[in-house]
Amino acid sequence: MEARDMDVSNTQNTSPPADAFRKATSVSGTECSPTAFDGLAAAVLDDRGKVVGWTDTAQDLTGFRADEVHGRPVQEMVADRPHDPRRHTRAPATGRVRLRHRCGDTIEVIFRTTQVNGSSDFLVLAAPTPHVANHQHGAALLRALSAQNQITIALHDRNLITVQTNAFSNTPHGRPIQPGARLGDVLCAEDAESIEAVLRQVLETGIPVIHRNQQASWRHRPARRHALSLSAFRLEDARGRPAGVAALYIDDTDQLRARRQLDLAHRAAERVGGSLDVVRTAQDLADVLVPAFGDLAAVDLAEAVFDGDEPVERLGGGNLHLRNAALAPTTADWPSGIQRGNLVPPLSDHPLLLRFQHGETVVYGRDDYIALIGGAHSAEQLLPHDTHTVMVAPLHARGLTLGAAVVWRSGPSEPFTEDEVDFMKQIASRGALAIDNARRYTREHRAAMALQRRLLPPATTDTPAAETAGVYLPTGRGAGTSGDWYDAIALPSLRLALVAGDVIGHGIPASATMGRLRAAIQTLADLELEPDELLTRIADLVQRLAAEAPPGDHDIVGATCLYAVYDPVTRRCAMASAGHPPPIVLRPDGTAEVADVSPGPPLAVSGVPYETTTIVLEPGSVLALYTDGLVHRGAHDSDDGLRRLTGALAASCRPDRALNETARALLTDLVDDAPRDDATLLLARTRTLPAQDTAHWQIPADPAAVSDARAWATSQLTAWGLDDLVFTTELIVSELVTNAIRYGRPPAELRLIRHDALICEVTDANTAQPRLRRARSTDEGGRGLFLVAQLAERWGCRHGQNHKTIWSEQPIAFPR
To answer: Which of 133, 179, 186 is nearest to 156 (CA)?
Structure first.
């Protein structure tokens, strides 16, 4: 039968049942199943269609040996022969047919025929349909993968020599990599060794590698690092022996850069702006940029920004009045001209500088940057070693250019790209806003501090009643001062008022409220009210201040206060508390204790009475008034802080140590570096007037006692050597004693006190307030207090719980 008459009319496109391909029987040592066949069967037919040549692969495919088919028509092997054997058709050049296997099964094959040159014989090539389909799909898949720009495929033999790849060399001409190349021919030696170690392990073990992160650089561009995702699996021949390795490289460099930029932006959002200190914020910005964005970074700020002021806009070169605020890393080998706090030297009028001054982020090459900073002679002091690219981003916020963020890249680092310039704009914008917030806080903080310190009294006072020393430390956090204050107010009759207070709130509003309260307390102190009465009136004032506050701020107007009055004659100290911590008393013997003061409500609360507590202080005792910022530290509660303060006071407060030195030492030891609240401490070392400088005389309830009082006062002044004050004192004593007998209630007492002034006091049990008025010519009385006011330097009246005291002062020409 001629090959051209091979009947293929009944050839079907359906595949034989799958189990037919999986049966395996042995006929003369030949397996029946075609699944073991992996190759291309070949046979030669003469012009009549008879087999004249039979290969081993044909035997593997059909199970028939060459001697069994030689000289027989090939049509006998076709499973679907035509019903009319005389009907012949010419075999097509290619097609699909089912062949009989020697074991009785059928095998669907795809064949191709071609005439042998110079002969009438035909060469027939055939392979099982599934194998051909797999080969076609595999080839299509390989072509599709090879066409992907982001996926590089490389087939390596057992020696890891490249057999086939779709990779192009990363060189200026970008030619395809030729077969026969090794990884070391295109990659840096270290990267090639690392990847070959992975491929060799896959080749030896057969265990594939999936998505292994691998860094690599091209041999001709070692500075640019590529982030690769490497997958590799072993190739095997038909007998399952290792034939090579297939490797897939996915370049994740752009995605990795995007993720890194996202992480950098996230870190900048978390870290930059967490501080309200300008320098700390600038350092946070520099630290974020290194090493994620550059090798070195600096933040330069306008000098005005450090003080909280607005910088002046400047165009062109020259002195830009910039000062370095931050460097990163601080441990780097910086040039001598780039140091923390250094002024940025004058710059040349470079075109890129003008672009920067108009708000653009610019990138300088090495030569441009050298030209900007003044030439090669300045490069040694102002250009970090091995720098090749510099990016300068303006720190622009709220219409102000606050300074610049400078990032250097050196050595093998790649130059900045356009997308990195855009990204730097975002980081610089966030950093500029944080720095401007810190600048504005600095301005407000300085204003609040200036106001607060102007409103506070002198740090030390020296009065007949006590020596005082006050210290104040503002909070290191938040919006500035908290309105804490202290005061030492000299009162008539040598008495001394001591005050400590703490206003609710922060910043300038708190300082302003503190100033109003301090002024009110000083005014009421001059009225010589008892401590409980004074706090009651101050509480009423705070209520009015709260009512005057803007809507929504009523609940944040308030304060606590401790008010104490010490009398050096009686050594009595009367005090009252409006929600304030109690004072600490250090006795001359070194023992310290917390005064037992009945606390009242804070000054924001009205309608609840306050209570005055009186204690007796020995000469040389130290009374410590403070605010809660001194006892509230970290996680410690107020009781623990109070014990610490009491112990520290007992340990450090000595008679031979200056009181202001002790106060500063206590504040340093007890307050954190960044206190959460203001801390105030007022120390008062008490004194007592010597007994020989005072004199007392009980006033009988008899009008005749007036002359006796004058005689007693004259005798006492003569004994003190104050003869020049006898005449005026007689008149003052006469008027005051007369009023006590006429209008007052017994018991009454006359007291004279000698110090830098002569003090005359008359006390009686009537609490009615005397009034100074101008008597008419027809009035019989009303001239006593007027006369006292004319003779004395000053006079006044103070009230106790069941008494009042009218006093006058006359200066002594030569105080003892």
So the answer is: 179
